[in-house]
Specification:
50% of the residues lie in helices and 13% in strands. With 101 residues, the protein is α+β, with helices and mostly antiparallel strands. The chain has a single domain, classed as Alpha-Beta Plaits (2-Layer Sandwich). It is globular.
Length: 101
């Protein structure tokens, strides 16, 4: 299932022209370092990623539909920050530290 979630996220980002600089799919959450074109807002990009992946995963894995019926597959919110305050290398190191969790 993790591999399929990864494929859906990559496909969605490619369709939007969003470049995934680095990404980590942990057991219960996702870390992504994205480069988003200025024509897209972060909230719209994440809405598309989370919405499409949730819908497709629940269609492809029917047992999840029962488990998450009436509830959300992904958490409602997200955390974001820009890379202006820290270097891209610091962000990549952070993601590397979280890649095994």
């Amino acid at each position: 299932m993790r591999a399929r979630i990864r494929e859906i996220i990559i496909q969605t980002c490619n369709e939007l022209g969003v470049h995934i600089v680095k990404g980590v799919l942990a057991r219960d959450h996702v870390h992504m370092f994205l480069s988003i074109p200025p024509k897209h807002s972060l909230s719209n990009v994440l809405q598309r990623i989370k919405g499409r992946s949730s819908r497709r995963i629940q269609m492809e894995f029917p047992e999840l539909r029962k488990r998450y019926w009436g509830r959300r597959f992904w958490a409602r919110g997200y955390f974001s920050t820009t890379s202006g305050n820290v270097t891209d290398d610091v962000i990549k190191q952070y993601l590397e530290l979280h890649s095994d969790k």
